[in-house]
Amino acid sequence: MDYIIIADAYEQIESTTKRLEMTDHLVSLLKKTPQDVISRVIYLTQGKLYPDFVGIEMGVAEKLAIRALMRATGNSEKAIQNEIQKSGDIGETAEKLLTKRKQSTFFTKHLTVERVYETLDKLAKTSGSGAVDTKMVLFSGLLIDAVPKEAKWLIRTVTGNLRLGIADMTVLDALAIAYGGGKETREKIERAYNISSDLGRVANVAAEKGLEGIEKFQVSVGEPIRPMLAERLGVPEEILEKFSGKCLAEYKYDGERIQAHKKGDTVQLFSRRLENISSQYPDVVELIRTQITAKEAILEAECVAMDLESGDMRPFQELMHRRRKYGIQAAITQYPVSLFTFDALYVDGVDLTQTSLPQRRQTLEKIINPNIRLKPAIQQLVKTPKQLEDFFERAIEEGCEGLMCKSISEDSVYQAGNRGWLWIKYKRDYKSEMTDTVDLVVVGAFHGRGKRAGAYGALLLATYNPKNDTFETVTKCGTGFTDKDLSQLYEMLQNHVVARKNSRVQSTLEADVWFEPSLVLEILGAEVTLSPIHMAAMDAIRKDSGMAIRFPRFTGKYRTDKSPQDATTSKEIVTMYNGQLKKIGDTASP
Ligand code: ATP
Fold this sequence. Notes:
590 residues, D-amino Acid Aminotransferase, Chain A, domain 1, CATH 2.40.50.140, eight-stranded mixed sheet, seven-stranded mixed sheet, 24 strands, 37% helix, elongated, binds adenosine-5'-triphosphate
């Protein structure tokens, strides 16, 4: 296929801003395109060589394009720069300079789409020393054989200045008209795109096999599925109403969404934006490889920063340290992560995107060999606003952002690439940021794991309630302790171990070890939240809810100068909650 056909189509598309006309021009281009080059034409019209998830970019800087233009036209850099200044566009400059040159040359080869694509592909994959020169020679070779109009579009393509405004949706419309029989078939074609993220492959199947081929289109390991998204509501009653009274509520973990593709020992990870992020998370790749028992699978999970010793989730901000290209191994140990899987989209030959959520979840649980680093998202069937609210508070307190409420009806399919009411997110409008430290009494402890085996993994901490003379649990803290702290604490607390919970300690949690309230520690938390588990200031803000401190961290200060009765009171926690309540959005939130 001659490249001039594409260049002519671009000229027409450029001359309109109306989407319908743009679509018509695209349809005529498709009709002139032989099936074996269709995918390449689709990529090129979007200024690409591959679908985005492949991550190969043309990456030709303007400077390099100018050098190629110098070689192809014999003009000096200065002359070219002057022209660019005048027209403001490197494409038009190329067209003009080539028009002048053409008057003095007689022989050029016809440029074909195949040759253009192959050359640009080679150019994109050239790296290492001497790459710039090789790229320049490759590209100028194309310019030498190009007619002026082609040169204009070639140079705009490689420098990332195509700007035709052909969005994915316009391509889908054009494919529906050209190969599906009419615009009304667009939904089917769109589904194929949503489960493959590859417009080139979709176009190829549509051109070769028509609508029948599109209807049989299947997910494929290695091609990311466009994510299903949720609507948002702020009132539990309204959420349940949307689901006819009951739904599956899942912890909404505060991390990064990861779509994992496993084929034998090969694992690829894709971000919410469908970028391949496998190299950023070698630890996650390994987890999927070892803990997922299916041979082939596509699953979705939230990747969360963790304190592996205490088993506590860490704030979203800590995960940001994993966004790096270098020093990955060090970051893996310093900022470990866990995966909470929430969906299975494909398992061992079976496309699950059209099955219901309960079925997908069942399959998901079957193919996981859970451990502390990888487990299914915590969930609960909820039927009343109270259940939903309680579960929500638990999720927040444990470090989640809220809940994802999901439909469990027959038609609760995975709506790839769509935001709909089958999933509803329930997040908070307000949060109560903690700016001051609190002094809490150690009332219990939980055994440690891993490096902390033999010591305490986390401590159960309480506020003091002077009115009832009780100690009311307010948080479980396993973060901020050095190795020295851990052994020292163990020693210090040995003298206070009691066989049974002291009657002045108010707790619904069952600690592994109970203490006589004595030691006071200084703690800094991220915020004060309502809690269905902790007993501090029970019923003060909401019936059946206590207060808790989220993301607690030991500051290093042993308040041996304070007696347990001098600890922060439950009432003070309520004051902190009310005083620091801020609408989310007013404060910098991730
Ligand atoms: P959206 O992704 O809906 O455009 P957003 O980027 O602002 O919005 P959030 O409002 O945080 O994201 O909500 C959606 C995200 O929640 C998902 O993309 C996913 O990363 C995350 N998430 C955490 N836990 C779950 C879960 N159990 N089920 C589904 N998604 C979850």
